[in-house]
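Entry type: protein chain
Record version: 2
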Amino acid sequence: MQHVRYILRRVFDTFGNTTLYHMDLKKRKSCVGISQLEVVNKVVQVIWKKGLQQNVAFTVEDAEVLTYVKRRLPDATILASINVRSLYHC
């Protein structure tokens, strides 16, 4: 989990607030023992500490994660990913 914060801090320190960041928050099946919300929480913490709330856009597939990110980072852009194929039957 420290790895996530370390990498984000390095990227944010390198490029700062003159860059717009896009983060794709997808659920990974290979992350056993770590919930998606735990990872997202660590990401949100780093963004807050660096003051980059308005420099980040997220792509989110999960409704729970979307709600969580929107509540924690109301100024961030959230791009809700909707699978249209699953909404209709062929």
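Comment: The helical segments are 2-15, 36-50, 63-72.
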